[in-house]
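Hello forum,

I keep getting stuck at the same step: I have a sequence, I want structure tokens, and every attempt I make locally crashes halfway through. Rather than fight my setup again tonight, could one of you with a working pipeline run this one for me? It's a single chain of 509 residues.
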Amino acid sequence: MVESSANRAVMYVRMSTESQDYSTDHQRAKIREYAAVRAIPIIREYVDDGKSGLDIKRRAGLLSLMKDVQSAQPDFSYILVYDISRWGRFQDIDEAAYHEHTCRRAGIEVIYCGEKFAGESGPYASLLKSMKRVMAAEYSRDLSEKVFIAQSRFTEMGFKQGGHAGYGLRRLALKACGTPRAILQYRESKVVATDRVILVWGPLDEVATVRRIYILYLHDRLSEGAIVRLLKSEQLPSEFGRPWTQHMVKTLLTNVKYCGTLAYNRRSCKLSTPRKHNTRDEWIVNTAAVDPIIDQAMFDQAQAERARRTHRYSRSELSNLLQVCYRKHGMINSQIIAADPTMPDTKMFSREFGTLPRAYDAAGLPRSPAFAAAETRKKLSVRRKELLNCVVKHAQAAGAIVERTSKPSVLSMNGSLLVRVDVEVCRNPKRGLQYWKLTTEPEIDFIIIERTNSAVLNTVDYLLVPARNLSPGTIYLKTPNLIHYSALRFSSVGAIFGEVEAGHVEAAC
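Reply #2:
Ran it on my machine without issues. Output:
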């Protein structure tokens, strides 16, 4: 016969990380004694061994228990716990009451076997329970404060408080009398609780790498990502034998231990509150606890440089920096920006404005000749495609059979003529007359050229030049010799193919 759930119980035991006063075995013994006297069968147990009672989210045992409590048909009616503190040291005592109330709503009673009010109800038991919850929460707060004071004092004495040493450093365990005991390897703990730990230099090749990273960052002006790529290319192992990451390099460049300072309370998450970064005045520091690998001046220089590189500039700030750089150097380009120590990375301008030329435009600066030429080349490429399509359309309208060849700018007409299509912009040399270039090449029968008068590509006219009788090379079209090409000049592409009436010439061409 299956026992009714109304007379069955489960036990919950927990051993805290803050206090080991009650081992789980001791709790089990007390709970089983309580259940035996009252003839309550215990069908299973839920355990959180070595878990803090400050919250529920990291306690797999209690989470599993609450899941079973809220199941459709729980197979138990009692939860046996040693005392209030084992249920939890919740900093919000209402949270402890909430979880207990959830059990009660499911028809399950939580019994604290080691408390005087065990199994009782009424105002007196409720008052004692509330007081015990407050005391459990206050115990954790008081213990946390005592631990913080002790660790702060040890830091001020030059002893490291937890965590790994960091690349280039090692942990040295000292006996209570101050005599060195042993170098602790990664994940090794102190042999004796009374031992203290200090930081010492690691292998000399690691120390040299730390110094080299600072030189690469400050003098060679490499970014953190570039340093990572360099170290990876050299197959240099990190502290853990893993590939280098940008976070590892950032730690080397920002942690004060590399300039000889031991700092505690840089970050904190007391009593399971969210982890936060504390301000510098909240740190507990000893400025002479470690033999410095990097001198203070270089470390401060690295912090200033990193602040400059990571500063978030507004658009107006970036524009002002470009204007100052232009006035300082008399011109502006990516090489000048990269070489100027007061300027941020060129990528920052590209991310904010889209491209460097757009950043120059926003700052009201003239573009460099190289950028101006690049922009003109882009426009010419688009214009050549438009002209090619226009020629194809008008030639076909005139009855010609047009085919595109392997060369993007050359067309075959009626299977016998090769026609090259080009757009030429006016050149304005410092000396001499302005000119347009006409380039001839073998096998080309005719060249159709659109002449433009500036970088904005305003059309001057179109030339249809018979090229077969011209020698290969470049012809410079200037004012004096343009008269020789007057019969070959047209006002539109349509006019080239016989559409002489204005009404036949489309605006798009």
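Residues 500-509 have pLDDT under 50 and may be disordered. If your local run keeps crashing, start a new thread with the error log.
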